[in-house]
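Re: that backbone. Tokens:
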């Protein structure tokens, strides 16, 4: 009987410990203030190389914001997500107060 009571006490202590871990109160994090980037530079001219195969689609380069400034991401060839799909290029769009990045995506014709 003693071992059963000891076991029961240990299980109860573990249960109470687990329940109390959810009661820890922490300070809320500082709010993050995001400042939209300024207008991107003009698109760079690229020399489009010969495609590696007939099904490949050219995905032009673009400017990417890296927190302190823009960096040029060169274009690449890629295979469509599915046959017959076309690439809708990503771009920067002017919004109230700054610029936002609109992701590129594959779209059915």
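Recovered sequence:
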């Amino acid at each position: 009987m003693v071992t059963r009571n000891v076991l029961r006490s240990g299980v109860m202590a573990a249960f109470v410990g687990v329940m109390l871990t959810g009661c820890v109160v922490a300070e809320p994090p500082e709010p993050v203030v995001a400042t939209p980037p300024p207008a991107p530079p003009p698109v760079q001219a690229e020399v489009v190389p010969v495609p590696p195969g007939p099904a490949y689609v050219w995905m032009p380069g673009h400017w990417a914001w890296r927190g302190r400034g823009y960096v040029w991401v060169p274009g690449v060839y890629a295979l469509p997500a599915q046959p017959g799909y076309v690439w809708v290029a990503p771009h920067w769009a002017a919004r109230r107060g700054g610029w936002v990045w609109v992701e590129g995506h594959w779209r059915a014709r």
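The mean pLDDT is 81. The CA atoms of residues 54 and 102 lie 28 Å apart.
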